[in-house]
Write a structure and sequence with these properties.
Length: 248
C-alpha cells in the first residue's frame, strides 16, 4: 500500500517531469511501491546514508504509451544498461557517511547476493543513495562513484524532523527536483536571519519511523552527467496523475 500523500506528490512530480521532458536525455520509470520503501529505509537508517542497489526485470518493458508521451527531443537511445525496463528489486547494500557509503568491496556484495541473484551476483543495474536532511544534488564523491554504474545513479534527498544530529544542510548549488510543493520557508524568518523552527515547515507526511517529512527530492543522472527524467508509476505501470498528464 502506497500512502495517499506520497501518491499525490509523485503525481505532481510526474507532471513536472512531463512538462520538462525535453531537458532530459532519457527516462526511467520508478514503481511507487519501491520508492516508498526507499523513503522508509532512508529514515530507518539515520543518521547514516544508505546505498541501495536497484535491479530491473528484463521481461518487463516500461509502458510504451507512457514512454512515447515522455519522449524527449534530446532522447539518447541506448544511453545506459536497462534503459526501457522496469525496476523490480531494491536491496540495501551499504550504509555510512557521504564518503564511505559508496565504498563497498565488490566481493562482499557478491557473497551476500550471489545465492539469490544467480550469475549476475552483486552487480546491480542502478544505484540510489540518500541525502538525509540535504538536497538531492550530487557531490564530487557521488559523481566519481557514478562512473562504475552501468545504469543510472539516483539521489534521494529528504527533509525531516526531528532532525537528530543532522540539521538541514542547504548550501549546495544545483538543479533540484522536489516532490510536491517546496516546504514553506518563512521569508520573515530568513529576513530576521534566525533559524527556521519546526512550525515554519509544512508536514507532507509521516513515516513509520515517526519522522515528519517536510520535503522529498529525487534526481537521476547518467555517469556522463546527462540528466535522466524519473516517472513514478503505479501498479498498472502508469504514472501517478496519468489522467491530468494525458489531458495536458
Ligand atoms: Zn551523495
Amino acid at each position: 500500500m502506497v500512502e495517499p500523500w506520497l501518491k499525490e506528490i509523485m503525481g505532481s512530480y510526474n507532471l513536472e517531469s512531463y512538462e520538462s521532458r525535453n531537458s532530459y536525455a532519457a527516462q526511467l520509470h520508478m514503481p511507487g511501491k519501491i520508492f516508498q520503501s526507499l523513503v522508509w529505509w532512508a529514515l530507518k537508517s539515520l543518521p547514516d546514508e544508505i546505498l541501495v542497489g536497484l535491479d530491473i526485470d528484463f521481461m518487463q518493458q516500461q509502458n510504451p504509451e507512457v514512454d512515447q508521451l515522455f519522449t524527449s527531443t534530446q532522447q539518447v537511445d541506448g544511453l545506459f544498461q536497462g534503459q526501457g525496463y522496469l525496476i523490480n528489486e531494491a536491496h540495501i547494500v551499504n550504509r555510512g557517511d557521504s564518503y564511505s557509503v559508496h565504498h563497498l568491496p565488490e566481493d562482499w556484495t557478491d557473497d551476500i547476493f550471489a545465492p539469490s541473484r544467480g550469475a549476475r551476483a552483486g552487480r546491480f543495474t542502478h544505484w540510489l543513495h540518500t541525502h538525509p536532511n540535504a538536497p538531492a544534488i550530487p557531490s564530487g564523491a557521488d559523481a566519481d562513484a557514478a562512473q562504475e554504474t552501468p545504469g543510472v545513479d539516483l539521489i534521494l534527498g529528504l527533509r525531516f524532523s526531528p532532525s537528530g544530529p543532522l540539521p538541514w544542510f542547504d548550501d549546495v548549488e544545483g538543479k533540484r527536483r522536489i516532490l510536491g510543493k517546496e516546504a514553506v520557508r518563512e521569508v520573515a524568518a530568513k529576513k530576521a536571519s534566525v533559524w527556521t523552527t519546526k512550525s515554519d515547515l509544512s508536514v507532507i507526511g509521516t513515516a513509520p519511523s515517526g519522522h515528519m517529512i517536510h520535503e522529498v527530492q529525487l534526481i537521476a543522472f547518467h555517469k556522463t552527467g546527462l540528466g535522466v527524467n524519473v516517472i513514478f508509476t503505479d501498479e498498472n505501470n502508469l504514472p501517478y496523475g496519468w489522467d491530468s498528464i494525458r489531458s495536458n
